[in-house]
UniProtKB/TrEMBL annotation:
Listed name of the protein: TNFR-Cys domain-containing protein
Signal peptide residue numbers: 1-27
Subcellular location: Secreted
Chain ranges passing through the membrane: none
Disulfide bonds: C69-C84, C91-C109
Main localization, broad class: secreted
Organism listed in the record: Naja naja (Indian cobra)
Boundaries of every TNFR-Cys domain copy: 68-109
Gene3D superfamilies the UniProt entry points to: Tumor Necrosis Factor Receptor, subunit A, domain 2
GO cellular component terms attached to this protein's record: extracellular region
Length: 127
């Protein structure tokens, strides 16, 4: 015998499943271990989110201070770096930009129509 789940039963179950998964997987802010230079106390500081870098690490009475990445710089992961990474990818004449540099990722290039990439874009030959 098969158990049939109607639309009205499946939708609330799916919503509650997503909410539970979201709560369990995103409940805590990513942290890093830091030793306060003044008190020598070991602390767990919050990491900075994507598109940000650390301005100041936490202290016993203050959260980590983060700052946004400048133009042409990015961080694509939770981090505690003091400087964002430079957008170093530049598309060449055989490529087109499919994703611009922004605060959360480097520029993304793709070969122009009629070209393919092994390591670099090359003309497609049918041989």
């Amino acid at each position: 015998m098969c158990l049939r789940v109607g639309y009205t039963q499946a939708v609330p179950w799916a919503i509650w499943s997503v909410l539970l998964w979201s709560t369990l997987t995103h409940a805590s802010w990513p942290t890093f271990e830091w030793k306060d230079p003044n008190t020598h106390e070991k602390l767990w500081c919050e990491k900075c989110s994507l598109g940000m870098s650390m301005a100041k690490p936490c202290t016993w009475d203050m959260h980590t201070q983060c700052k946004p990445c400048a133009n042409e710089h990015y961080t694509q992961y939770w981090n505690y770096v003091e400087r964002c990474l430079y957008c170093s990818v530049h598309c060449n004449v055989l490529e087109v930009e499919v994703g611009p540099c922004n605060r959360m990722h480097n520029r993304v290039c793709e070969c122009k129509l009629g070209y393919h990439a092994l390591r670099f874009c090359r003309f497609c030959d049918d041989a």
